[in-house]
Amino acid sequence: MKKLLFIFLLTFSLSETDPPIAPISAFAEFDISSGSFISYGSYMGGGFGLPMNLIRDLSIDALLYVLVPTSSQYNCNNLLQNNNVNMENVVYLNYNHDTYWTKNFGPYFIVDGNNEIGIVDFQYDRPDRINDNAIPLQLASHWNYNYFDSDIIHNGGNLMFNGINQAASSTLPYNANPNLDVNQMMFDYYGIEQYHTVEDPWNNYHEHIDCWAKFVSPEKIIICQVPASHYRYAEIENVVSFYQNQENSFGEPYEIYRVYTPNGEPYANSYIMNGKVYVPIGFSQYDDEAIEAYQLALPEYEVSGYQYGNFISTDALNCRVMNIPDFEAIQIYHNSINDMPVAMNEYEIIVKLNELTDYGINENSLKVYWKNQYMTEYTSIQLEYFENTYNANIPQQPGNTEVRYFIEAGNLNGRTDRLPIAGYFDFYAFGGPGFNLGDIDMDNLVNINDIFLIVHHVLNTNPITGYGLILADLNEDNTINVFDIIRIVNIILGN
Ligand code: ARG
């Protein structure tokens, strides 16, 4: 049946399918990946379009999927071998294709409401490249994944997911699909609840977001930067103010990082895979700053530069390599702790998990590792299940300090995942004990002012926010109501 459908779809490339079963989650490039997907021997490109040292590094500890026509595989294999590529990780995919821009036409993966993996295709906006356009369908059949086609006219170079139901592009999809409700389609096929789109600030002919911005985590975006004298300064800063006003999937502002590109250097066109960042370099004296910019955005990731003669501003490293997610992973979702303006008794870590396989979560493996500046080693605390989330508390801190932490989760098949994949989350904590329950205004006194605050909260005339919500829940039953008022009155009366 699948075969028939496949032949049908190939023959009539008018190919919209039903959408996947909701809720849908699209993978991000920075999610844990099984490997990289590159091309060799395309009709128009010929070679890899990538430097051999990059290809070698990509193959070290992840698979290297190489799209190569059967007739070119021999040459391809020799080249890889002669350049010390880790041949154990090479996976050939024998399909004819037009170009080496795998990121632009390659397979974008989702996990659907049945926890099944699928490829969601679009209509590649280069109508002359029919072979490239057919690749996602060919691969879905090759790997036996569900296949969906939205038929939106789109391009992977202009399609970027944040891993938690958000995506970003230039505004091109609206112009390319005048008769479609693009946002609705993005929701139906990719589970995109918030589609961030802004005008291409470079005004490039292809309007690809991968030449100016990149999600580096569900909470962080890196955006290129030019000096105030640059003729594109206003447009690029417009992208920044756009993202300053967008909320991430946790309803918080995006953390914005910048990479300096005064001559249009394609540093935003970097590739992230499993704890490493591959940055195109060789453009100017700003190569080093670009590497530092990624290091700042992704602490303890391994960031390396790759030089190559035919990387250009509108077409560099990331255009020619895309990731294939790891479908054995335990997906870890976590809204990282923000800097805290006051001392706290504890810092609650809340984690959601989705196991892509069905081995079952190993509860004993669920840990938060944390340390402050006074500690040399991370110490671990156990995550405990409570109403669909796993929770643990980092305790109050002994002095003002940065706190670093990461999360680990394993399944019963012995697999362990980590978030972030490399490095840590960090937040700033004030030292000393936090405030007593009932000290809602945090003035170190529990008094009549705190009663007023709770009463106004209960009457909804002036709701309490932030940490005050914890301090107002005096009987710790997760609601703030008249019982908390009784409790605080009794405390003040000394009862
Ligand atoms: N000339 C190529 C095209 O228009 C360039 C592709 C650049 N890719 C990218 N992801 N920015 O298809």
Summarize, please:
This protein is α+β, with helices and mostly antiparallel strands and 495 residues long. Helix content is 23%, strand content 29%.
Protein traits:
3 domains, L-arginine/glycine Amidinotransferase, Chain A, alpha+beta, 495 residues, single chain, binds arginine, elongated, 4-stranded mixed beta sheet
Number of strands: 26
Calculate the mean pLDDT score and round it.
Answer: 95
Give the uncertain stretches in residue-range form: none
Output the radius of gyration.
25 Å
Structural class of the helices, strands and pairings? alpha+beta
CATH fold name of the largest domain, please? L-arginine/glycine Amidinotransferase, Chain A
- Strand proportion, as a percent range, falls in 25-35%
Q: Which geometry do the CA atoms define?
A: elongated
Continuous helix count: 12
The end-to-end distance, rounded to whole angstroms, is: 75 Å
Give an overview in words:
There is one protein chain. The chain has 495 residues and is α+β, with helices and mostly antiparallel strands. It has 3 domains: 2-325, L-arginine/glycine Amidinotransferase, Chain A (5-stranded Propeller), CATH 3.75.10.10; 330-429, Immunoglobulins (Immunoglobulin-like, Sandwich), CATH 2.60.40; 448-493, no CATH class. Helix content is 23%, strand content 29%. The protein has helices at 2-11, 52-60, 73-82, 102-105, 130-143, 172-176, 182-190, 233-244, 287-297, 448-458, 468-472, 482-493; strands at residues 25-26, 33-39, 63-67, 90-93, 109-111, 117-124, 146-154, 160-161, 166-170, 194-198, 213-217, 220-225, 255-260, 271-273, 276-281, 302-307, 322-325, 330-333, 346-355, 361-372, 379-382, 384-386, 389-395, 401-411, 416-419, 425-429. Strands 20, 21, 24, 25 and 26 form a 5-stranded antiparallel beta sheet that branches. Strands 1-5-6-7 form a 4-stranded mixed beta sheet, with helices on both faces. β2, α2 and β3 form a beta-alpha-beta unit. α1 (2-11) runs antiparallel to α5 (130-143) and α10 (448-458) runs antiparallel to α12. The longest helix is centred in the N-terminal third of the chain and has 14 residues, at 130-143. It binds arginine.
